[in-house]
Specification:
This protein has 411 residues and is of the alpha+beta class. The protein has 2 domains: 181 residues, no CATH class; 151 residues, no CATH class. Strands 1, 2, 3, 4, 5, 6, 7, 8, 9 and 10 form a 10-stranded mixed beta sheet that branches. Helix 12 packs antiparallel against helix 14. About 3% of the residues have low confidence. Keywords: Cell cycle, Cell division, Cell membrane, Membrane, Transmembrane, Transmembrane helix. InterPro entries: ABC3_permease_C, Lipoprotein-release_system, MacB_PCD. It is a multi-pass membrane protein. It is found in: Cell membrane.
């Protein structure tokens, strides 16, 4: 029974190390895939001039052609972007970020958002906007309805002007400054609805609509680039900017860099906790070896009296510890694969037993429990588990082999 309990202890330790690591890697991989599947892989923007106007470096038309010819670039699209405030009567919400993309290229660039489309289309003709279901819920609108939008810079300027007016002591001057403040909304038709779980508060319009909203004229905010290997965006971006002075690059991971770093830190701390659990399992194997060597004192004395060497006696108990480690590790490996295979079913069963809900919480981008099994980590886990069991069994076996035969045979 003691041996069986020890095997179970090792199995549980291995199971926890593999399952927890796989689920945490799955969450990180799923989050990364969500970001890469919903955001432009690289956004190139022209730096502003020293006086705040104009721009450094070559014009965007030339840079666009350069980017299209770069190796590893799937597509390069000019965009007009910024922040919008949307309103429907007394109901308001923010649309951020907003990307205005040429209608002719919208299908190519927006294709990766198709899985997240809930209603309407992503064609984006001029005068239309694609919002998320959270926007429609906040504004109480439906696809095909009109929404009033205000460009973020205009709203911010109006707020600053109103604040300056309130600081004015002269009533006439203050009223004159307030009278100059005016916001003229632009009416856009909602042509498509995307999932907010993945897109947050993002919105999409045509390039000409974006240029009109942000008063860019014939200019653009930057160039949106899709890469064949988005996970290497950090390496590729400097190469893209090598011959393009005066431009900067924003990666798909920049905005959520803190969250990605937090996930890495959580994995490191969890690995430490799981290693401690593995040590506890190894101590159970040590306890088994100690118990067995205590129970087998007479047998150890008999073997020593018959001429067995200390190494031979040590190997007897070391073999038992190895068998416990191998059986426990194999059982834990099989159990972990079963748990990972049934992870979403287990979640549903636990939710039913506890009276909870089995659907994703609103605002969370995951509707299922993701998992990513790293073969290298599994091999390390199994190897370390068996090694810990062997080391834990060797110490009491070493002491047992050094008992004098007379002392071991004495009652």
């Amino acid at each position: 029974m003691i041996t069986v309990v020890s095997v179970i202890g090792v199995a549980v330790g291995v199971l926890m190390m593999i399952v927890v690591r796989a689920v945490m890697l799955g969450f990180e991989a799923d989050f990364r895939e969500t970001l890469m599947g919903t955001k432009p892989h690289v956004l190139l923007r022209q730096e502003a001039g020293q006086d705040g106007g104009g721009g450094k470096g070559p014009a965007w038309q030339g840079v666009l052609e350069q980017m299209k010819a770069k190796a590893g670039v799937v597509s390069a699209t000019p965009f007009a972007g910024g922040e919008l405030y949307a309103a429907n009567g007394d109901r308001q919400t923010v649309v951020k970020p907003v990307l205005g993309i040429p209608a002719a290229e919208a299908q190519g660039y927006m294709r990766k958002l198709t899985p997240h489309l809930l209603a309407g289309s992503l064609d984006m003709p001029d005068g239309t906007i694609v919002l998320t279901d959270r926007h429609l819920q906040d504004l109480e609108l439906s696809p095909g309805d009109e929404v009033s939008v205000y460009a973020g810079p205009n709203v911010n300027e109006a707020v600053r002007s109103y604040s300056d007016a309130n600081d004015e002591d002269d009533d006439k001057k203050r009223q004159a400054m307030i009278d100059k403040i005016s916001l003229h909304p632009q009416k856009l038709t909602i042509s498509g609805v995307l999932q907010s779980d993945q897109l947050g508060f993002a919105g999409y319009v045509s390039l000409r609509t974006g240029q009109a909203l942000f008063q860019l004229g014939g200019n653009v905010t930057g160039i949106a680039i899709e890469l064949a290997e988005p996970q290497r965006a950090g390496e590729i971006a400097p190469m893209l900017l090598k011959d393009v002075p005066g431009w900067t690059a924003e990666l798909w991971s920049d905005e959520d860099k803190a969250r990605l770093a937090a996930m890495q830190n959580e994995q490191t701390m969890m690995q430490l906790v799981l290693f401690i659990i593995a040590l506890v399992a190894a101590f159970s194997v040590m306890n088994v070896t100690i118990t067995v060597t205590t129970q087998k004192r007479h047998e150890i004395g008999m073997l020593a009296a018959l001429g067995c060497t200390r190494g031979q006696i040590t190997n007897v108990f070391l073999l038992q510890a190895t068998i416990v480690g191998v059986l426990g590790t194999a059982s834990g490996l099989g159990g972990s694969m079963l748990v990972l295979w049934l992870r979403n079913d287990l979640r549903q069963w636990l939710a039913v037993l506890t009276g909870g809900q089995v659907h994703a919480v609103e605002g969370v981008f995951l509707s299922t429990i993701p998992a990513h099994v790293d073969p290298e980590h599994v091999m390390w886990t199994c190897g370390i588990s068996i090694l810990l069991c062997i080391v834990a069994g060797w110490l009491p076996a070493w002491f047992a082999a050094r008992m004098e035969p007379a002392e071991a045979l004495r009652d």
